[in-house]
Amino acid sequence: MDAVTSLPEVSFLPEMGGSAVAGEVVYLARTAEKPYVYTYDPPDGVAKSNLIAEAHTVPILDMRPIADRLGLDAQGFALVEAATSVADFYDEDSVEAMYYPEAERLVKQATGAARVVVFDRTIRRREHGVQDRAPGTPRQPVTRIHGDYTEVSGPQRVRDLMGAEADELLRRRFAIVNVWRPIRGPLHDAPLAVCDAGSLADGDLVAQDLIYRDRRGEIYGLTYNPAHRWYYAPAMRADEALLLKCFDSLKDGRARFMPHTSFADPNAPADMLPRESIELRTLAFFDA
Fold first, then answer.
1. Domain segments of the chain: what residues?
2. What counts of helices (H) and strands (E) characterise the chain?
3. What is the DSSP pairing of strand 53-62 with strand 230-232?
4. What's the mean pLDDT in 210-219?
5. Which of 74, 85, 239, 255 is most deeply packed, by most CB within 10 A?
6. Which CATH number applies to 4-285?
7. Whole-model pTM?
């Protein structure tokens, strides 16, 4: 099904994008207890997670017809042409030597940041029937809506990574921007759906703990609101990238947090290749 007419709860203006597909996305149900997930087997008697999933079928619009009108500060995401000199993204030396500088330049150009630092990378390779973070298996597409950083964990990441510089850097604006691209294209399997940050209401984002063996992180889950506007880029190529704003310290009305998730595109061909993608997280620091 590719018509939005079967989903009357959201009304889209023509300028909001091209055709839409009906995609199922997994929201977070509201609970009295703060949500959490262990990334490893928890102590005896402790549940690995207390998250309660709430699936909704929503219209997800093709962003390509309006890609030149979408931006990190308005919607929290941008689709960009991004040719790369990297031939093998599984070659760690090539990625660090060539792709890191490419991504830093890309984020600088898109944001106007004075300095960009890549601090993390994840390659995801779909294997059906495998859980994400299972020992000995590749990272899998994330199937729950999430925002990578919160009001608390965004600044903490700067403190964790930037050492003696952190206090001075935190006095000025900084952002966390994810550079996401297919390793092989066109990508039809588990594409990324992104939520227009301008469609979020106060209280939609809910902080949840991500518990590691050596630390506790915090991300956002998203509770359902029929006003949310969802987009994706069908059949993304390996020379394209999605820039995702995961955090912005500036509180002036611009996009600060942008929830996203993978989803099953109902228009995807039956013989599609399993998804392979790479994402880099970057810290973007500004002069003011």
1. 4-285
2. 4, 13
3. parallel
4. 93
5. 255
6. 2.60.120
7. 0.91
